[in-house]
Amino acid sequence: MSDDPAINVSQQDIEETTRLLEQMVSAAKKQVGTLAGGVQTDLAAEGVALLDKLRTVEVRFSNPNAKFFRLTPKRFEREGIELAGWVKDSLKTFDYYFLGMTANLFTGDTGVQFSSLLTRFTFSPDTTILHSLFPTSQWRTVFSVEGGFSVGVDNELNYGIEAPERSLEIPGLNASVRGALTTSGGLKGKAVIAMPDFKYEQGRSEIAVAGEGSDIAQWRVTTPELKQQQRVDYAMIFKVPKGAAAITLEGKMIAQTSMPWLTARLGDLLNALAGVFPFLTRRDAKLPLGAVETWKDLALPQD
After folding, report:
1. Residue-wise pLDDT tens digits, 140-151
2. DSSP E strands, the chain
3. Using one digit for the tens of pLDDT, what is the confidence trace for 163-180?
């Protein structure tokens, strides 16, 4: 699916990064007074503050039960929607579910530069097959428009989107995206509303998405600049064999610190710290931040 090293980052690795940043902050505070002939420079003080801010970066996942429901014929009938023939046939063998997950990334009061942001949801491999994921790369320009979005599921188990009216005015909009877009109230009678307050606050960045037909959903954003709190929503439709009662789900969000960005801002402090932390000057240096969380025996909703 990807050769991104962030895939293999564990919660232990993240905790190790936090401990390392704590040690770097402590060492930097000791060094800062000895720089520039004993006079604390503004740049050195900013370097200490920057390391301390990275130490407090935090990721929180939503409760998976918050937006988790079974896609039954009755649910669509209540909205006046008849499922497509192929869906009815497939429901004889599989149960389909909608799962909406939110990841909140807290980065403090100023921007932090990362080289990549990886979000990955891993499902029980023996039971789960992902049918469709949202958002995908062609929606990037739509999410650059500010305003409210709603995500619905139509009779073909595709996504329909209610978006601000000005989204329809985006030049060169992908045809499939334009066909799925509607304005306020436009999904009524056409789709089951699944996430009425959808947010994707990295819409201006390139999105690489993979996972349909497998048990792993993955989104990767390159060179995002994250400011204050960033909320990112993810929508997934998956199927399991009839009779399945529960699944295991792992959520992972890994933000790889941009090392060129960090070292440039450490200034004179970099040389002082490199004597204690030589990895700072290596080209392959990594400071992964984020979270890994697992929900075992997650019950599948039955209605």
Report:
1. 778 777 778 899
2. 58-61, 68-70, 94-123, 129-134, 149-154, 159-162, 181-182, 191-198, 207-210, 216-222, 225-241, 246-257, 288-299
3. 888 888 888 787 888 888
